[in-house]
Amino acid sequence: MILSGLADGVRMLLSLDPEVWHPIGVSLRVSLGACVISAALALPLGVGLGLGRFRGRNAVRTLVQASMSLPTVMVGLVLYGLLSREGMLGELGLLYTPAGMVIGQAVLAVPIMVGFSSAAFEQVDPRIQLTGLSLGASRLRAALLVASEHRAALVAAVAAGFGRVFAEVGVSMLLGGNIRGYTRNITTGIAFETGKGEFARGVALGVVLLVVALGVNLLLAWRQPRAGGEA
């Protein structure tokens, strides 16, 4: 059954079946948008947490680590309450929209990116930053220097965040509603298609999910040695 579904799924992909390709486009747009927003927020926080020394740092680090394992369904429920018609943000009309899905996925990705980047920058030789400060650079400029010299850690953090949100289903289902031709993405499409017995379409979407995840990891593996060599 699995082999038959795989063969049918590949045929659907090659035939450009809109029932397969539209969820792919939604997944890519939503997940990439969430990652861009998350990276803009999380990477500076991660670098600052990794390099900084301040009161309460251990507590913040513990909170970030705990947030990395947030259940997607719980995040979806909380945001559903905020974005629903009776919620605090209900007037924005974001529930059951791709924008609402982006918000939910960004909430999941930010702790991952902060955690990965801060853990990496905690291992950085402090003499690099001290050298920059001794040469007259501001703390911000010194931190940017360290970040540029360890770009591979930032790439790894972004890739981890993308992997977290691209394969999740709870937030996408609750905030997107799995609306055909609008908010249905790969993971909700897999659940829907297999639930109604369309195994081939479910496998086709699963194949794409695996291929994209593999592509991100291959890109990371290709980028890391170059970044390490440059540093």
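The record above closes out task 2.4. Task 2.5 opens with a second protein, given below.
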Amino acid sequence: MLNTQTLLQTEVPAEGYYTATLPQSPARPIRTFLPEQVQSRYAYPVLVMFHGRGGNEEEVLRLAPLVSRRNYIAVSVRGPESIGNRGDGRAACSWGDNGGSADDSADAAMQAVQMLRLHHNIHSQRVYLVGVNDGAAAAYRAAFALGNRVAGVVAVNGNLPRSQGKIPLFNLEQVRKQRVLICQSTSSSPTQELNVLRDRKLFYAAGAEVAYRRFKSAAAVPPEMLREVNRWIIDQIHAAPAEAGVRDWESGVR
């Protein structure tokens, strides 16, 4: 569990972006987006965002206000593997092949949510994982490891993690109760689109609650895709009222 003595950060603003650093992971900053006119008495749903290969925590969080400027507190963590620098000089990182380690991605989500709970009023039963491109595999891995602590997972132009034999890396019990939104742009390669359709069929077969949205656009992440992510999450919240109690975000992954 984190506490205010172990968290190093800049001053928390009233809205907008800020960065925090955890002493146990100083090379992996946590970036947070606070919505406009934060209401202290309202428990906000949370988006935990996973960047793709070559991205970083700042790059992926820029998508958060395009999902909604008012509805969520969003947070992102830098992937564990450094692969150089981006064109703007900032770090280029990765979660590793097939989303890396489930323990690593789940622990990153745990630390991010724990940090938010120290400073903001968040809804522990409304934590959604959003993976973009290769970050989708990391989001899936984290969701499967965290189980009912996650309200849903969103894959944006990304796929399920697979072994070298192309077998999906999950078991039925991990998937059966998941709520999943798969978003795909037509700018993706034919192989990517085929894999997404296979993922959709696998989720259906496993008994997951899965929705699929395809967007005709030359852009990889068109604005209408992010608006659909917002609509889907709001629909999930309205369709499934929160249960009594809170999710156990204080303990470790296992």
